[in-house]
Specification:
Elements: E1 7-12, H1 15-29, H2 36-52, E2 56-57, E3 62-63, H3 68-74, H4 80-100, H5 112-129, H6 139-145, H7 147-163, E4 174-176, H8 183-188, E5 193-199
Helix pairs in contact: 1-2, 1-7, 2-4, 3-4, 4-5, 4-7, 5-6
Length: 200
């Protein structure tokens, strides 16, 4: 018999809003806060990977392999439009991997520092083919420079999500308001809804 208590669910307008709020909270406490535009961009990256299911294999409980170094090298052989896509994909994946799943690199031949360098390089290269974002010149260069501090913020979010030791936040307690999940989908996600008590 499972004696675990049901998980209360926090409803949010979107996962991006959830990640933006949590990242912003940690950012305010940081000695050198990161620009809000980078926090916004990073919260969008977190939402993308959280919803896609392409990065983390929940059935096997492990991160899916991504050959980022090879992708970064291949980008030099393709069109400018394809370069934009590849550089963004490599940078975003490295940011998510280093921040959210850094421990998954510890048993590999290369560590988080390797992926961090790939991410920085990818964003710097992306700046060369698409420098503006949010009407900010050299946005991706700024993102490359802020890669390390951004990884630190995301790792704090990951720690909260896994252990629920701050702000009473846990990713499994977050549900996008208006989303319709079946009981089986809740169970697959590890969520036990408590329909009598929702926090909004």
């Amino acid at each position: 018999m499972d004696n675990s208590k049901p998980i209360d669910i926090i409803t949010v307008p979107s996962l991006q809003t959830y990640f933006f709020d949590v990242l912003s909270d940690f950012n305010r406490k940081a000695p050198c806060p990161i620009p809000q535009e980078i926090i916004y961009y990073s919260s969008d990256v977190l939402e993308k990977f959280a919803l896609s299911g392409e990065f983390y294999d929940s059935r096997e409980g492990r991160v899916r392999e991504k050959i980022l170094g090879t992708k970064l090298l291949e980008a030099t052989l393709v069109s400018r439009e394809e370069q934009k896509r590849i550089y963004k994909e490599v940078g975003d994946t490295a940011l998510f991997l280093c921040g959210y799943f850094a421990e998954s690199t510890q048993k590999k031949l290369v560590d988080a520092n390797y992926y961090s360098q790939l991410g920085r390089s990818a964003y710097q290269n992306l700046n060369g083919v698409m420098p503006n974002f949010f009407d900010i010149p050299s946005f991706y260069s700024m993102l490359s420079t802020s890669f390390g501090p951004m990884v630190d913020l995301i790792s704090k979010v990951a720690s909260v999500d896994r252990f629920g030791n701050e702000h009473h936040l846990n990713f499994k307690r977050v549900m996008v308001s208006g989303s319709e999940m079946t009981p089986d989908e809740y169970a697959y996600s590890g969520i036990t809804p408590n329909y009598e008590k929702k926090v909004s």
